[in-house]
Every structure is written in C-alpha cells, then in structure tokens.
TrEMBL record:
Similarity remark: Belongs to the protein kinase superfamily. STE Ser/Thr protein kinase family. STE20 subfamily.
Domain Protein kinase positions: 14-314
Gene Ontology terms, MF aspect: ATP binding; protein kinase activity; protein serine/threonine kinase activator activity
Any single GO BP term: protein export from nucleus
Database matches in CDD domains: PK_STRAD
Annotated InterPro entries: Kinase-like_dom_sf, Prot_kinase_dom, STRAD_A/B-like
Pfam families in UniProt: Pkinase
Region feature Disordered, mapped onto this chain: 255-278
Name of this chain's protein: Protein kinase domain-containing protein
Amino acid sequence: MMATLDYELDPKQYQLLKAIGQAYDGTATVYLAKYLPSQSFLAVSRTNLDAVHEGFAVLQHEFYLMRLMQHENILAFNQAFITDNELWVVMPLMDLGSAREILDNMFPDGMPEMAIAYIIRDILMALDYIHRMGYVHRSVNASHILLSKTGKVTLAGLRTAVSMVEDGKWLRAVHKFPTQAVKSLPWLAPEVLEQNLLGYDTKSDIYSVGITACELANGCVPFCDMVPMKMLLEKINGTTPKLLDSSTLLSEVGQEGSAVDSGEASGNRKQSDPLQNPFTRLFSPQFHQFIEDCLKQEPADRPSASALLNHPFLKQVKKRTSEALVPFIQSLTSLTEMQQEAEQGAQETQDGDLVEKFQCMDMGESWVFD
C-alpha cells in the first residue's frame, strides 16, 4: 500500500510552522509543518495554481515521476491534494536540508572524504534506479541532495528528468536541452551543452556526479565563476576539475606562485576545520581516480552508475549510510531541533536568529525539494 494513503486530505490536519523556502520560481512556498494526528514533522509545499500557467505541465511531469520512482534514495511525496486554488504536496522532511547548505554553513572548504563516499554511494543507487527506469536525471548537484538527521540521503530535482523510451523503444540518445537548466550549467556534461546531433544519454548524469563530488570535496562549484560560453569552451576542450588537496594544489603552483586554472571557482571562501584545509589535506588516490573516471570527455568512457557502485573509492563504504553518517551529522542542527527549541522558548535571542534562518532559506538555491 502506498504511503499516500497514510495522510489525510484535510489541510486543517497540517500545522504550518515556518516558511523554509520557495519553489517553482516563487509560485510555491515550502513549509516546515506538523501533521497533527501523529504530531510528526514533515514538509508541505503550497503551489498557487493560478500563477503556474505554462509551468503546469512541468508540475504534472514532476509529480508523475515522484509517484513512479519508488526508491529509498529518491525524494517521494506522501500525499497531494487541491484546496481552493492551491496544490498542497506533503513530503518527508529532510531536516538537515541540502548538501549545498551544509557546505555553506559548516564545511566551506569541503566535507570529509568518508562522508562524501557514503553520500555519493546513495546518490548512485538512486541514479542506477532512475536509469533502469529509462530516465536521465539531468540535474544532479549538491542542492538536490537532501539529508536527514537520521542519516538518510535522497535525490530530488525530478522536474528536469527526461525519458529515453519512446513508443516502447529505448532511444540511443536524447536531444532535448533542459529548459530550466540555467542554474545547472556547471554540472551539465559537455555533450548536453553542445546540443549536437549525437545527443546524450544516462552517462551525462555520471559527469554531473563527478562535478558534484568535486563540489562536496572542495566546497565550491567547478566552473561557477565562468560565463556560459567560456564554460562550454572549457568543457569541450577537455578541462576537467580536480579535487583540491596538497597533491593537486602544490603541483599546479608555478615557480612564480601562480596557479593553473583547474576549472574551480576561486571565490572568497571562509576557512573551516584545519583538517579540511586544501593545502594540508590529502584525498585518497581512489577518490582522485573516481573523479577522473566520472569526468571522462567521451560519454562511452564513463562507467555506468551500476559500475561505479563497485569502484575502489566506494570499497570503503561498508556500513549503512544511516549508521556511518552519525558522527558526521552529530554537529549539525536540524530544522526540527530548531523548531523544538523555539517552541520551548529557550534562548530568546537565538530563537530570533532561528526565525531569520527559516525565512531566508531559498529553495531554489540551497534546499531544493523539486
């Protein structure tokens, strides 16, 4: 029996606590909510249908896929109903937010390698399922990776997924360019950006996994400081990002102290844990090889999601993610913990900061349920 039957269709059964972001170009607001019958926390998205207009087809497409894709590492929805002119969608609350937000708030120089391995393993399992279902995700990035305090990792962003099956036949390639890809350009594979007759397939998602792994490890998004045309030229010419550690940074510093452009954003990045300092840390050779394999210029040379699950980099992943990530997430404060602190009236000044944090979250950039 599907989980959608467990939640009532009455909006009065949902207490909307805080707005935690926007979605669908501002036509939807996402709330931290409490389901009154069970007093459990969840997320509720309210979409103004009068304001959606031409985006309604995209909305339908996404919810069709969210219902179709039944996998523990893909964000699902528990219930959906229309009240007045609004579409309400009830979803599990991934109370640590997105991996991008965790990077920004806690790990500006990148996450520990072991945490990345577990996160990437779960995302690859989600992609393997999506690919076997005949779809290309086309929007893998840290903002679409959601985490919970229990160690659960899910992939969101199904609105951009495209089918590789037409009239019951599997296509060798697809040619549709993602219409809402402006924010996803740094993660898109060269063959997607080129828009040529060869098209692209599921291997384009593997390239995005490589970029995302760099993002998680380095704290910054490769190519994000480039204009689209320069980014396209760099990717077509074979420029591939690298993990920033003592082995790559020292080898790229010239005799005069100038670093070679590796496709990474320089930016004004805060210092984090000294153990994560790019000039002193050292990632494993297996991790470096994983990045290289994902970012192969030719799509056919990249491993499939299924093959990557057996990559030497992921051999260190032996536990369930919910168990292994506990030390990593203990220092992170969840939205539910923030809300409970606010409800108890503890530390009034801090509570004011919490309210501000809730109100400032941008679903389109940091915590994305789409």
